[in-house]
Automatic annotation (TrEMBL):
Residues 428-534 form the Methionyl-tRNA synthetase anticodon-binding domain. Residues 44-405 form the Methionyl/Leucyl tRNA synthetase domain. It catalyses: tRNA(Met) + L-methionine + ATP = L-methionyl-tRNA(Met) + AMP + diphosphate. It is found in: Mitochondrion matrix. This is Methionine--tRNA ligase, mitochondrial. Its EC number is 6.1.1.10. One of its GO terms (biological process) is methionyl-tRNA aminoacylation.
Amino acid sequence: MRVCSLFASRSCHIFRSLQNTLVSSSTRIAAVRCSVTCNEKSVYYVTTPIFYVNASPHLGHLYSAVIADCSHRYKQLQGFNSKFATGTDEHGLKVQQAAEAAGKQPLTFCTEVSERFEHLFRSCSISHTDYIRTTELRHRQAVEHFWSVLWNKRLIYKGSYEGWYSTQDESFLTPSQVGDALDSSGNEIKVSLESGHKVEWMKEENYMFRLSAFRSQLLDWLRGNPKAIQPERFQQAVLQWLQEDLPDLSVSRQRSRLQWGIQVPGDANQTIYVWLDALVNYLSVAGYPDHHDRWWSVAHHIIGKDILKFHAIYWPAFLLGAGLRLPQAIHVHSHWTVRGKKMSKSLGNVIDPLEHSRMFTTDGLRYFLLRQGVPESDCDYTEEKVIKLLNAELADSLGGLLNRCTAAALNPAQVYPCFCPQAFPRDQGGRAAAEDYRMLEAVRNLPFVVERHYESMHFYKALEAISACVRQTNGFVQRHAPWKLDRTDGKDLRWLDTIIHVSLECMRVYGTLLQPVVPEISDKLLTRLGVRPDERSFETLDFLPHLWQRDSPFEGRALGTDTGVLFSRLETLRTHWRAVPAAA
Ligand code: MSP
Protein backbone atom coordinates (compact mmCIF):
# COMPACT_ATOMS: atom_id res chain seq x y z
CA MET A 1 0.00 0.00 0.00
CA ARG A 2 1.33 3.43 -0.92
CA VAL A 3 1.00 6.22 1.57
CA CYS A 4 0.57 9.78 0.43
CA SER A 5 3.55 11.75 1.70
CA LEU A 6 2.15 15.24 1.30
CA PHE A 7 -0.90 15.26 3.50
CA ALA A 8 -1.80 18.94 3.81
CA SER A 9 -1.03 20.54 7.12
CA ARG A 10 -2.61 23.86 6.22
CA SER A 11 -5.24 24.90 3.74
CA CYS A 12 -5.27 27.62 1.15
CA HIS A 13 -8.08 30.14 1.12
CA ILE A 14 -9.75 28.55 -1.91
CA PHE A 15 -9.76 25.26 -0.12
CA ARG A 16 -11.17 26.88 3.02
CA SER A 17 -13.91 28.72 1.15
CA LEU A 18 -14.82 25.50 -0.61
CA GLN A 19 -14.97 23.83 2.77
CA ASN A 20 -17.27 26.55 4.08
CA THR A 21 -19.64 26.14 1.16
CA LEU A 22 -19.57 22.40 1.54
CA VAL A 23 -20.02 22.48 5.32
CA SER A 24 -23.24 24.41 4.95
CA SER A 25 -24.59 22.19 2.20
CA SER A 26 -23.50 19.07 4.04
CA THR A 27 -25.22 20.22 7.23
CA ARG A 28 -28.33 20.84 5.14
CA ILE A 29 -28.17 17.37 3.68
CA ALA A 30 -27.69 15.83 7.11
CA ALA A 31 -30.67 17.76 8.45
CA VAL A 32 -32.88 16.69 5.56
CA ARG A 33 -31.77 13.09 5.90
CA CYS A 34 -32.39 13.14 9.61
CA SER A 35 -35.93 14.39 9.22
CA VAL A 36 -36.50 11.60 6.74
CA THR A 37 -34.83 8.79 8.58
CA CYS A 38 -34.90 9.58 12.28
CA ASN A 39 -38.59 10.19 12.83
CA GLU A 40 -41.31 7.59 13.09
CA LYS A 41 -41.50 7.19 9.32
CA SER A 42 -39.13 4.30 9.16
CA VAL A 43 -41.69 2.29 7.22
CA TYR A 44 -42.84 2.85 3.67
CA TYR A 45 -45.42 1.10 1.53
CA VAL A 46 -45.52 1.52 -2.23
CA THR A 47 -47.93 -0.07 -4.70
CA THR A 48 -48.36 -0.42 -8.44
CA PRO A 49 -51.80 -0.76 -9.97
CA ILE A 50 -52.69 -4.43 -10.26
CA PHE A 51 -52.61 -5.39 -13.90
CA TYR A 52 -55.51 -6.71 -15.95
CA VAL A 53 -54.87 -10.22 -17.17
CA ASN A 54 -56.98 -9.92 -20.32
CA ALA A 55 -53.81 -9.38 -22.36
CA SER A 56 -50.05 -9.77 -22.08
CA PRO A 57 -47.91 -7.18 -20.32
CA HIS A 58 -46.78 -4.18 -22.34
CA LEU A 59 -44.26 -1.40 -21.86
CA GLY A 60 -46.71 0.86 -19.97
CA HIS A 61 -47.22 -1.83 -17.34
CA LEU A 62 -43.51 -2.26 -16.85
CA TYR A 63 -43.18 1.51 -16.52
CA SER A 64 -45.59 1.62 -13.56
CA ALA A 65 -43.63 -1.23 -11.96
CA VAL A 66 -40.20 0.32 -12.59
CA ILE A 67 -41.26 3.60 -10.97
CA ALA A 68 -42.51 1.76 -7.88
CA ASP A 69 -39.41 -0.42 -7.80
CA CYS A 70 -37.10 2.57 -7.96
CA SER A 71 -38.95 4.27 -5.15
CA HIS A 72 -38.87 1.08 -3.03
CA ARG A 73 -35.13 0.57 -3.57
CA TYR A 74 -34.48 4.22 -2.80
CA LYS A 75 -36.34 4.00 0.50
CA GLN A 76 -34.42 0.85 1.43
CA LEU A 77 -31.13 2.60 0.74
CA GLN A 78 -32.30 5.36 3.05
CA GLY A 79 -32.77 2.78 5.77
CA PHE A 80 -36.56 2.43 5.56
CA ASN A 81 -38.37 -0.84 6.05
CA SER A 82 -40.20 -0.79 2.73
CA LYS A 83 -43.04 -2.94 1.45
CA PHE A 84 -43.66 -3.04 -2.29
CA ALA A 85 -46.81 -4.62 -3.67
CA THR A 86 -47.78 -5.45 -7.22
CA GLY A 87 -49.97 -8.14 -8.76
CA THR A 88 -52.85 -8.88 -11.07
CA ASP A 89 -56.48 -7.79 -11.39
CA GLU A 90 -58.24 -10.96 -12.42
CA HIS A 91 -61.99 -10.44 -12.10
CA GLY A 92 -64.54 -8.64 -14.26
CA LEU A 93 -66.29 -8.84 -17.58
CA LYS A 94 -63.24 -8.04 -19.63
CA VAL A 95 -61.27 -10.95 -18.18
CA GLN A 96 -64.30 -13.25 -18.31
CA GLN A 97 -64.66 -12.50 -22.04
CA ALA A 98 -60.92 -12.90 -22.71
CA ALA A 99 -60.93 -16.35 -21.03
CA GLU A 100 -63.99 -17.36 -23.07
CA ALA A 101 -62.32 -16.21 -26.28
CA ALA A 102 -59.23 -18.27 -25.37
CA GLY A 103 -61.44 -21.28 -24.65
CA LYS A 104 -60.05 -21.61 -21.13
CA GLN A 105 -61.42 -21.79 -17.64
CA PRO A 106 -61.15 -18.28 -16.16
CA LEU A 107 -58.79 -19.28 -13.35
CA THR A 108 -56.52 -21.27 -15.66
CA PHE A 109 -56.42 -18.33 -18.03
CA CYS A 110 -55.70 -15.86 -15.21
CA THR A 111 -52.92 -18.02 -13.78
CA GLU A 112 -51.20 -18.21 -17.15
CA VAL A 113 -51.25 -14.46 -17.74
CA SER A 114 -50.45 -13.59 -14.13
CA GLU A 115 -47.35 -15.78 -14.39
CA ARG A 116 -46.31 -13.84 -17.48
CA PHE A 117 -46.41 -10.63 -15.46
CA GLU A 118 -44.42 -12.24 -12.66
CA HIS A 119 -41.87 -13.52 -15.13
CA LEU A 120 -41.51 -10.07 -16.70
CA PHE A 121 -41.02 -8.47 -13.30
CA ARG A 122 -38.43 -11.02 -12.21
CA SER A 123 -36.56 -10.50 -15.49
CA CYS A 124 -36.60 -6.73 -15.04
CA SER A 125 -35.28 -6.66 -11.46
CA ILE A 126 -38.62 -5.61 -9.98
CA SER A 127 -38.03 -6.32 -6.31
CA HIS A 128 -41.61 -6.48 -5.03
CA THR A 129 -42.11 -7.92 -1.58
CA ASP A 130 -45.73 -8.96 -2.25
CA TYR A 131 -47.48 -10.23 -5.34
CA ILE A 132 -51.25 -10.19 -5.00
CA ARG A 133 -53.82 -11.87 -7.22
CA THR A 134 -57.45 -10.87 -6.73
CA THR A 135 -58.43 -14.54 -7.02
CA GLU A 136 -56.60 -15.33 -3.77
CA LEU A 137 -58.52 -16.22 -0.63
CA ARG A 138 -56.82 -13.51 1.48
CA HIS A 139 -58.08 -10.93 -0.97
CA ARG A 140 -61.64 -12.26 -1.17
CA GLN A 141 -61.86 -12.17 2.61
CA ALA A 142 -60.61 -8.57 2.71
CA VAL A 143 -63.13 -7.48 0.04
CA GLU A 144 -66.02 -9.21 1.80
CA HIS A 145 -65.09 -7.54 5.06
CA PHE A 146 -64.70 -4.13 3.43
CA TRP A 147 -68.10 -4.50 1.73
CA SER A 148 -69.75 -5.47 5.03
CA VAL A 149 -68.32 -2.40 6.76
CA LEU A 150 -69.78 -0.10 4.07
CA TRP A 151 -73.08 -2.00 4.11
CA ASN A 152 -73.36 -1.83 7.91
CA LYS A 153 -72.77 1.91 7.76
CA ARG A 154 -75.62 2.15 5.23
CA LEU A 155 -73.32 3.54 2.59
CA ILE A 156 -74.38 0.83 0.17
CA TYR A 157 -78.04 0.51 -0.77
CA LYS A 158 -80.01 -1.56 -3.25
CA GLY A 159 -81.05 0.47 -6.27
CA SER A 160 -80.93 0.41 -10.02
CA TYR A 161 -78.42 1.77 -12.47
CA GLU A 162 -79.15 3.01 -15.93
CA GLY A 163 -76.41 4.53 -17.99
CA TRP A 164 -73.30 4.02 -20.10
CA TYR A 165 -70.70 1.38 -19.31
CA SER A 166 -67.33 0.68 -20.91
CA THR A 167 -66.28 -2.94 -20.48
CA GLN A 168 -62.77 -2.19 -21.71
CA ASP A 169 -62.31 0.43 -18.96
CA GLU A 170 -64.72 -1.35 -16.55
CA SER A 171 -66.10 2.13 -16.01
CA PHE A 172 -69.46 3.91 -15.71
CA LEU A 173 -69.78 7.14 -17.66
CA THR A 174 -72.04 10.16 -17.54
CA PRO A 175 -73.64 11.38 -20.83
CA SER A 176 -71.12 14.23 -21.02
CA GLN A 177 -68.26 11.69 -21.03
CA VAL A 178 -69.64 9.89 -24.10
CA GLY A 179 -69.35 10.77 -27.78
CA ASP A 180 -70.12 9.38 -31.25
CA ALA A 181 -67.71 7.38 -33.38
CA LEU A 182 -67.58 4.75 -36.13
CA ASP A 183 -66.33 1.22 -35.52
CA SER A 184 -63.99 -0.61 -37.92
CA SER A 185 -66.97 -1.69 -40.09
CA GLY A 186 -68.30 1.86 -40.33
CA ASN A 187 -71.16 1.40 -37.84
CA GLU A 188 -72.08 4.28 -35.56
CA ILE A 189 -71.14 3.58 -31.98
CA LYS A 190 -70.83 5.46 -28.70
CA VAL A 191 -67.41 5.76 -27.14
CA SER A 192 -65.80 7.09 -23.97
CA LEU A 193 -64.38 10.51 -24.84
CA GLU A 194 -61.41 9.89 -22.54
CA SER A 195 -60.29 6.41 -23.57
CA GLY A 196 -61.98 6.07 -26.97
CA HIS A 197 -63.33 2.67 -25.91
CA LYS A 198 -66.81 1.54 -26.92
CA VAL A 199 -69.58 2.06 -24.35
CA GLU A 200 -72.94 0.33 -24.02
CA TRP A 201 -76.19 1.34 -22.43
CA MET A 202 -76.96 -0.77 -19.40
CA LYS A 203 -79.92 -0.98 -17.10
CA GLU A 204 -79.65 -3.17 -14.03
CA GLU A 205 -80.85 -3.73 -10.53
CA ASN A 206 -77.78 -3.56 -8.35
CA TYR A 207 -76.11 -2.04 -5.32
CA MET A 208 -75.18 1.62 -5.19
CA PHE A 209 -72.52 3.37 -3.11
CA ARG A 210 -73.35 6.83 -1.70
CA LEU A 211 -70.49 8.52 -3.54
CA SER A 212 -72.40 11.80 -3.73
CA ALA A 213 -72.20 12.10 0.08
CA PHE A 214 -68.40 12.38 -0.03
CA ARG A 215 -67.85 15.38 -2.26
CA SER A 216 -67.10 17.87 0.51
CA GLN A 217 -64.84 15.48 2.42
CA LEU A 218 -62.90 14.80 -0.77
CA LEU A 219 -62.55 18.51 -1.43
CA ASP A 220 -61.36 19.08 2.15
CA TRP A 221 -58.81 16.31 1.83
CA LEU A 222 -57.35 17.75 -1.37
CA ARG A 223 -57.44 21.36 -0.22
CA GLY A 224 -55.77 20.42 3.06
CA ASN A 225 -53.15 18.22 1.36
CA PRO A 226 -51.79 20.00 -1.69
CA LYS A 227 -49.39 17.11 -2.33
CA ALA A 228 -51.95 14.32 -2.00
CA ILE A 229 -51.93 13.82 -5.75
CA GLN A 230 -48.70 14.50 -7.61
CA PRO A 231 -47.77 16.09 -9.97
CA GLU A 232 -49.93 19.09 -9.16
CA ARG A 233 -51.75 19.22 -12.49
CA PHE A 234 -53.45 15.92 -11.64
CA GLN A 235 -54.59 17.25 -8.27
CA GLN A 236 -56.09 20.21 -10.14
CA ALA A 237 -57.85 17.86 -12.55
CA VAL A 238 -59.45 15.99 -9.66
CA LEU A 239 -60.53 19.24 -7.99
CA GLN A 240 -62.13 20.18 -11.29
CA TRP A 241 -63.99 16.84 -11.55
CA LEU A 242 -65.27 17.37 -8.04
CA GLN A 243 -66.96 20.58 -9.21
CA GLU A 244 -69.01 18.49 -11.63
CA ASP A 245 -71.83 16.09 -10.99
CA LEU A 246 -70.86 13.27 -8.59
CA PRO A 247 -73.63 10.70 -8.79
CA ASP A 248 -73.81 7.61 -6.60
CA LEU A 249 -71.82 4.71 -7.97
CA SER A 250 -73.04 1.29 -8.99
CA VAL A 251 -70.86 -1.21 -7.09
CA SER A 252 -72.24 -4.52 -8.27
CA ARG A 253 -73.34 -6.29 -11.44
CA GLN A 254 -76.00 -8.92 -11.92
CA ARG A 255 -74.48 -12.35 -11.59
CA SER A 256 -76.29 -13.46 -14.75
CA ARG A 257 -74.06 -11.01 -16.69
CA LEU A 258 -70.93 -11.27 -14.64
CA GLN A 259 -70.04 -14.51 -12.90
CA TRP A 260 -66.30 -14.00 -12.73
CA GLY A 261 -65.94 -11.99 -9.56
CA ILE A 262 -66.57 -11.92 -5.84
CA GLN A 263 -70.16 -12.45 -4.86
CA VAL A 264 -71.89 -9.71 -2.85
CA PRO A 265 -72.02 -11.04 0.74
CA GLY A 266 -75.53 -12.33 1.37
CA ASP A 267 -76.76 -11.91 -2.24
CA ALA A 268 -76.06 -14.77 -4.62
CA ASN A 269 -77.46 -12.76 -7.56
CA GLN A 270 -74.88 -9.97 -7.51
CA THR A 271 -71.14 -9.74 -8.16
CA ILE A 272 -69.01 -6.96 -6.64
CA TYR A 273 -67.93 -4.27 -9.14
CA VAL A 274 -64.43 -5.07 -10.32
CA TRP A 275 -62.95 -1.67 -9.36
CA LEU A 276 -64.13 -1.92 -5.76
CA ASP A 277 -62.73 -5.45 -5.67
CA ALA A 278 -59.41 -4.37 -7.24
CA LEU A 279 -58.79 -1.26 -5.13
CA VAL A 280 -59.06 -3.28 -1.93
CA ASN A 281 -55.93 -5.20 -3.01
CA TYR A 282 -53.87 -2.42 -1.44
CA LEU A 283 -55.45 -3.22 1.91
CA SER A 284 -55.29 -7.00 1.47
CA VAL A 285 -51.51 -6.77 1.12
CA ALA A 286 -51.29 -4.49 4.15
CA GLY A 287 -53.01 -7.17 6.26
CA TYR A 288 -56.60 -5.87 6.30
CA PRO A 289 -58.81 -6.26 8.27
CA ASP A 290 -56.68 -7.26 11.28
CA HIS A 291 -53.10 -6.03 10.90
CA HIS A 292 -53.08 -3.26 8.32
CA ASP A 293 -52.33 -0.16 10.45
CA ARG A 294 -48.57 -0.27 10.27
CA TRP A 295 -48.42 -0.27 6.49
CA TRP A 296 -51.66 1.47 5.71
CA SER A 297 -50.55 4.67 7.39
CA VAL A 298 -47.65 5.03 4.94
CA ALA A 299 -49.24 3.95 1.66
CA HIS A 300 -48.11 5.50 -1.63
CA HIS A 301 -49.86 4.54 -4.86
CA ILE A 302 -48.19 4.73 -8.26
CA ILE A 303 -50.75 4.91 -11.06
CA GLY A 304 -51.07 5.88 -14.70
CA LYS A 305 -53.14 8.95 -15.59
CA ASP A 306 -55.95 6.85 -17.11
CA ILE A 307 -56.94 5.43 -13.72
CA LEU A 308 -56.86 8.67 -11.75
CA LYS A 309 -60.63 8.91 -11.22
CA PHE A 310 -60.75 5.46 -9.63
CA HIS A 311 -57.85 6.21 -7.28
CA ALA A 312 -58.48 9.85 -6.47
CA ILE A 313 -62.28 9.83 -6.14
CA TYR A 314 -63.75 6.36 -5.74
CA TRP A 315 -60.98 4.91 -3.58
CA PRO A 316 -60.70 7.78 -1.08
CA ALA A 317 -64.51 7.86 -0.82
CA PHE A 318 -64.62 4.12 -0.10
CA LEU A 319 -61.85 4.53 2.49
CA LEU A 320 -63.56 7.48 4.16
CA GLY A 321 -66.74 5.44 4.22
CA ALA A 322 -64.98 2.51 5.82
CA GLY A 323 -63.35 4.81 8.41
CA LEU A 324 -59.83 4.19 7.10
CA ARG A 325 -56.98 6.60 6.49
CA LEU A 326 -56.36 7.96 3.03
CA PRO A 327 -53.13 7.12 1.19
CA GLN A 328 -50.22 9.44 1.91
CA ALA A 329 -49.84 10.23 -1.75
CA ILE A 330 -50.98 9.17 -5.19
CA HIS A 331 -48.19 9.54 -7.73
CA VAL A 332 -49.46 9.78 -11.28
CA HIS A 333 -47.45 9.12 -14.40
CA SER A 334 -48.26 9.84 -18.00
CA HIS A 335 -48.23 7.42 -20.89
CA TRP A 336 -45.78 6.09 -23.43
CA THR A 337 -46.70 6.55 -27.05
CA VAL A 338 -44.96 4.97 -30.02
CA ARG A 339 -44.01 7.37 -32.78
CA GLY A 340 -46.65 9.73 -31.45
CA LYS A 341 -49.42 7.12 -31.39
CA LYS A 342 -51.14 5.43 -28.48
CA MET A 343 -50.01 1.81 -28.12
CA SER A 344 -52.77 -0.49 -29.29
CA LYS A 345 -53.20 -4.01 -30.58
CA SER A 346 -55.14 -2.79 -33.62
CA LEU A 347 -52.27 -0.49 -34.64
CA GLY A 348 -49.83 -3.35 -34.01
CA ASN A 349 -47.48 -1.00 -32.17
CA VAL A 350 -47.57 -2.54 -28.69
CA ILE A 351 -44.07 -2.75 -27.24
CA ASP A 352 -43.26 -6.08 -25.61
CA PRO A 353 -41.18 -5.10 -22.56
CA LEU A 354 -39.54 -8.51 -22.23
CA GLU A 355 -38.29 -8.44 -25.80
CA HIS A 356 -37.01 -4.89 -25.38
CA SER A 357 -35.31 -5.68 -22.08
CA ARG A 358 -33.41 -8.40 -23.92
CA MET A 359 -32.47 -6.01 -26.73
CA PHE A 360 -31.33 -3.18 -24.49
CA THR A 361 -30.63 -5.13 -21.27
CA THR A 362 -32.84 -4.85 -18.21
CA ASP A 363 -30.91 -1.96 -16.74
CA GLY A 364 -30.74 -0.25 -20.12
CA LEU A 365 -34.51 -0.30 -20.47
CA ARG A 366 -35.04 0.77 -16.86
CA TYR A 367 -32.61 3.65 -17.32
CA PHE A 368 -34.32 4.80 -20.51
CA LEU A 369 -37.83 4.68 -19.03
CA LEU A 370 -36.83 6.66 -15.95
CA ARG A 371 -34.47 9.06 -17.75
CA GLN A 372 -37.00 9.93 -20.46
CA GLY A 373 -40.32 9.45 -18.67
CA VAL A 374 -41.77 12.74 -17.46
CA PRO A 375 -44.71 12.30 -15.06
CA GLU A 376 -46.47 15.44 -16.28
CA SER A 377 -46.61 14.61 -19.97
CA ASP A 378 -46.68 11.70 -22.40
CA CYS A 379 -43.38 10.50 -23.82
CA ASP A 380 -42.55 8.85 -27.06
CA TYR A 381 -40.72 5.54 -27.26
CA THR A 382 -38.55 4.75 -30.24
CA GLU A 383 -35.71 2.27 -30.48
CA GLU A 384 -33.45 4.91 -32.01
CA LYS A 385 -33.91 7.13 -28.97
CA VAL A 386 -33.15 4.26 -26.59
CA ILE A 387 -29.94 3.40 -28.40
CA LYS A 388 -28.75 6.99 -28.64
CA LEU A 389 -29.36 7.69 -24.96
CA LEU A 390 -27.87 4.47 -23.62
CA ASN A 391 -24.79 4.70 -25.80
CA ALA A 392 -24.20 8.30 -24.80
CA GLU A 393 -24.83 8.15 -21.08
CA LEU A 394 -24.20 4.58 -19.95
CA ALA A 395 -21.67 3.24 -22.43
CA ASP A 396 -19.61 6.32 -23.34
CA SER A 397 -19.92 8.73 -20.45
CA LEU A 398 -20.17 6.58 -17.31
CA GLY A 399 -18.57 3.44 -18.76
CA GLY A 400 -15.80 5.46 -20.41
CA LEU A 401 -14.98 7.24 -17.16
CA LEU A 402 -14.70 3.98 -15.25
CA ASN A 403 -12.58 2.52 -17.98
CA ARG A 404 -10.17 5.43 -17.98
CA CYS A 405 -9.67 5.50 -14.23
CA THR A 406 -9.27 1.80 -13.75
CA ALA A 407 -7.16 1.11 -16.86
CA ALA A 408 -3.82 -0.50 -16.08
CA ALA A 409 -1.98 2.31 -17.89
CA LEU A 410 -3.19 4.94 -15.42
CA ASN A 411 -3.69 2.70 -12.44
CA PRO A 412 -1.06 -0.06 -12.66
CA ALA A 413 -1.35 -0.97 -8.97
CA GLN A 414 -5.14 -1.45 -9.39
CA VAL A 415 -5.90 0.41 -6.16
CA TYR A 416 -7.81 3.44 -5.01
CA PRO A 417 -4.76 5.75 -5.06
CA CYS A 418 -3.99 8.50 -2.54
CA PHE A 419 -5.55 11.92 -2.52
CA CYS A 420 -2.91 14.51 -1.87
CA PRO A 421 -4.42 17.69 -0.34
CA GLN A 422 -1.33 19.72 -1.17
CA ALA A 423 -1.47 18.69 -4.76
CA PHE A 424 -5.03 19.85 -5.17
CA PRO A 425 -5.21 23.55 -4.12
CA ARG A 426 -4.01 25.87 -6.86
CA ASP A 427 -1.89 28.18 -4.72
CA GLN A 428 0.19 25.43 -3.16
CA GLY A 429 1.71 24.26 -6.36
CA GLY A 430 -1.23 22.08 -7.06
CA ARG A 431 -2.79 22.03 -10.46
CA ALA A 432 -6.52 22.10 -9.77
CA ALA A 433 -8.52 24.63 -11.78
CA ALA A 434 -11.57 26.66 -10.77
CA GLU A 435 -13.80 24.21 -12.72
CA ASP A 436 -12.46 21.38 -10.57
CA TYR A 437 -13.73 23.08 -7.43
CA ARG A 438 -17.05 23.66 -9.11
CA MET A 439 -17.22 20.00 -10.00
CA LEU A 440 -16.46 18.96 -6.41
CA GLU A 441 -19.19 21.20 -5.15
CA ALA A 442 -21.68 19.79 -7.66
CA VAL A 443 -20.82 16.21 -6.71
CA ARG A 444 -20.89 17.02 -3.01
CA ASN A 445 -24.39 18.45 -3.46
CA LEU A 446 -25.55 15.71 -5.78
CA PRO A 447 -26.98 13.34 -3.11
CA PHE A 448 -29.11 16.19 -1.82
CA VAL A 449 -30.39 17.04 -5.30
CA VAL A 450 -30.97 13.41 -6.24
CA GLU A 451 -32.80 12.59 -3.01
CA ARG A 452 -35.11 15.55 -3.53
CA HIS A 453 -36.00 14.34 -7.01
CA TYR A 454 -36.32 10.68 -5.99
CA GLU A 455 -38.61 11.81 -3.19
CA SER A 456 -40.98 13.55 -5.64
CA MET A 457 -40.59 10.74 -8.20
CA HIS A 458 -39.01 13.06 -10.72
CA PHE A 459 -36.49 10.40 -11.63
CA TYR A 460 -35.63 12.05 -14.91
CA LYS A 461 -34.41 15.13 -13.04
CA ALA A 462 -32.26 13.04 -10.72
CA LEU A 463 -30.72 11.23 -13.68
CA GLU A 464 -30.19 14.49 -15.52
CA ALA A 465 -28.28 15.83 -12.51
CA ILE A 466 -26.16 12.66 -12.23
CA SER A 467 -25.47 12.70 -15.93
CA ALA A 468 -24.34 16.35 -15.78
CA CYS A 469 -21.90 15.48 -12.97
CA VAL A 470 -20.55 12.49 -14.90
CA ARG A 471 -19.86 14.85 -17.79
CA GLN A 472 -18.08 17.26 -15.43
CA THR A 473 -15.89 14.45 -14.11
CA ASN A 474 -15.02 13.37 -17.62
CA GLY A 475 -14.12 16.99 -18.30
CA PHE A 476 -11.90 17.02 -15.21
CA VAL A 477 -9.96 13.97 -16.40
CA GLN A 478 -9.75 15.28 -19.93
CA ARG A 479 -8.57 18.71 -18.75
CA HIS A 480 -5.68 17.31 -16.73
CA ALA A 481 -4.79 14.48 -19.13
CA PRO A 482 -3.22 12.22 -16.48
CA TRP A 483 -1.85 9.97 -19.24
CA LYS A 484 0.59 12.76 -20.10
CA LEU A 485 2.05 12.88 -16.57
CA ASP A 486 5.46 11.47 -15.74
CA ARG A 487 5.16 8.67 -13.20
CA THR A 488 8.85 8.95 -12.34
CA ASP A 489 8.40 12.52 -11.12
CA GLY A 490 7.16 12.67 -7.49
CA LYS A 491 4.95 15.72 -7.97
CA ASP A 492 3.46 14.41 -11.19
CA LEU A 493 2.78 11.08 -9.59
CA ARG A 494 1.00 12.61 -6.61
CA TRP A 495 -1.11 14.74 -8.93
CA LEU A 496 -1.90 11.76 -11.11
CA ASP A 497 -2.98 9.75 -8.07
CA THR A 498 -5.10 12.64 -6.86
CA ILE A 499 -6.88 12.92 -10.21
CA ILE A 500 -7.67 9.21 -10.15
CA HIS A 501 -8.69 9.30 -6.50
CA VAL A 502 -11.11 12.18 -7.08
CA SER A 503 -12.55 10.52 -10.17
CA LEU A 504 -13.08 7.21 -8.36
CA GLU A 505 -14.73 9.08 -5.49
CA CYS A 506 -17.09 10.76 -7.97
CA MET A 507 -17.93 7.39 -9.46
CA ARG A 508 -18.56 5.94 -6.03
CA VAL A 509 -21.18 8.67 -5.55
CA TYR A 510 -22.73 8.01 -8.97
CA GLY A 511 -22.77 4.24 -8.43
CA THR A 512 -24.42 4.63 -5.04
CA LEU A 513 -27.07 7.06 -6.24
CA LEU A 514 -27.86 5.04 -9.35
CA GLN A 515 -28.62 1.84 -7.42
CA PRO A 516 -32.43 2.29 -7.39
CA VAL A 517 -32.49 2.89 -11.16
CA VAL A 518 -29.91 0.45 -12.55
CA PRO A 519 -29.18 -2.08 -9.80
CA GLU A 520 -27.00 -4.38 -11.91
CA ILE A 521 -24.84 -1.67 -13.44
CA SER A 522 -24.41 0.02 -10.06
CA ASP A 523 -23.39 -3.25 -8.48
CA LYS A 524 -20.86 -3.85 -11.21
CA LEU A 525 -19.48 -0.33 -10.84
CA LEU A 526 -19.26 -0.37 -7.07
CA THR A 527 -17.79 -3.87 -7.02
CA ARG A 528 -15.11 -2.78 -9.47
CA LEU A 529 -14.31 0.16 -7.19
CA GLY A 530 -13.97 -2.24 -4.26
CA VAL A 531 -16.96 -0.76 -2.39
CA ARG A 532 -18.38 -3.40 -0.06
CA PRO A 533 -22.17 -4.04 0.09
CA ASP A 534 -22.33 -2.50 3.58
CA GLU A 535 -20.75 0.70 2.22
CA ARG A 536 -23.47 1.42 -0.34
CA SER A 537 -26.28 3.06 1.63
CA PHE A 538 -27.24 6.68 1.06
CA GLU A 539 -26.65 7.43 4.72
CA THR A 540 -23.02 6.38 4.74
CA LEU A 541 -22.20 8.13 1.48
CA ASP A 542 -19.36 10.47 2.36
CA PHE A 543 -17.78 12.04 -0.67
CA LEU A 544 -14.05 12.69 -0.69
CA PRO A 545 -13.48 12.63 3.10
CA HIS A 546 -9.97 14.00 2.55
CA LEU A 547 -11.45 17.39 1.83
CA TRP A 548 -12.42 17.43 5.48
CA GLN A 549 -9.04 16.08 6.48
CA ARG A 550 -10.63 12.83 7.48
CA ASP A 551 -9.21 9.49 6.49
CA SER A 552 -10.77 7.73 3.57
CA PRO A 553 -11.56 4.05 4.10
CA PHE A 554 -10.97 3.55 0.40
CA GLU A 555 -7.49 4.97 0.04
CA GLY A 556 -5.06 2.25 -0.85
CA ARG A 557 -7.78 -0.35 -1.14
CA ALA A 558 -7.46 -2.85 -3.97
CA LEU A 559 -9.95 -2.41 -6.79
CA GLY A 560 -12.40 -5.24 -7.38
CA THR A 561 -12.12 -7.69 -10.22
CA ASP A 562 -12.49 -6.35 -13.73
CA THR A 563 -15.55 -8.06 -15.18
CA GLY A 564 -15.56 -6.19 -18.47
CA VAL A 565 -17.14 -3.05 -19.81
CA LEU A 566 -19.82 -1.43 -17.68
CA PHE A 567 -22.37 -1.16 -20.47
CA SER A 568 -21.70 -2.39 -23.98
CA ARG A 569 -22.50 0.00 -26.80
CA LEU A 570 -25.63 -0.94 -28.69
CA GLU A 571 -25.52 -1.44 -32.43
CA THR A 572 -27.83 0.64 -34.52
CA LEU A 573 -28.74 -1.87 -37.23
CA ARG A 574 -32.51 -2.45 -37.12
CA THR A 575 -32.22 -6.19 -37.65
CA HIS A 576 -29.33 -6.77 -35.30
CA TRP A 577 -30.34 -5.25 -32.02
CA ARG A 578 -27.77 -6.59 -29.70
CA ALA A 579 -25.02 -5.37 -27.51
CA VAL A 580 -21.60 -5.07 -29.11
CA PRO A 581 -19.33 -7.67 -27.49
CA ALA A 582 -16.96 -6.28 -24.89
CA ALA A 583 -13.92 -6.88 -27.09
CA ALA A 584 -15.24 -4.69 -29.94
N1 MSP B 1 -56.50 -3.20 -13.37
C1 MSP B 1 -56.47 -1.79 -13.44
C2 MSP B 1 -55.78 -1.19 -12.23
C3 MSP B 1 -56.40 -1.58 -10.92
S1 MSP B 1 -55.50 -0.93 -9.57
C4 MSP B 1 -56.49 -1.17 -8.27
C5 MSP B 1 -55.71 -1.36 -14.67
N2 MSP B 1 -54.89 -2.23 -15.21
S2 MSP B 1 -54.07 -2.03 -16.56
O1 MSP B 1 -53.40 -3.27 -16.76
O2 MSP B 1 -54.94 -1.61 -17.61
O3 MSP B 1 -53.07 -0.83 -16.36
C6 MSP B 1 -52.12 -0.85 -15.35
C7 MSP B 1 -51.18 0.32 -15.43
O4 MSP B 1 -50.51 0.40 -16.68
C8 MSP B 1 -51.87 1.67 -15.25
O5 MSP B 1 -51.13 2.45 -14.33
C9 MSP B 1 -51.79 2.28 -16.60
O6 MSP B 1 -51.77 3.68 -16.57
C10 MSP B 1 -50.48 1.73 -17.09
N3 MSP B 1 -50.39 1.88 -18.51
C11 MSP B 1 -51.17 1.31 -19.47
N4 MSP B 1 -50.81 1.82 -20.68
C12 MSP B 1 -49.80 2.71 -20.53
C13 MSP B 1 -48.96 3.40 -21.42
N5 MSP B 1 -49.11 3.37 -22.72
N6 MSP B 1 -47.94 4.09 -20.87
C14 MSP B 1 -47.69 4.10 -19.52
N7 MSP B 1 -48.45 3.44 -18.69
C15 MSP B 1 -49.65 2.92 -19.13
O7 MSP B 1 -55.87 -0.22 -15.09
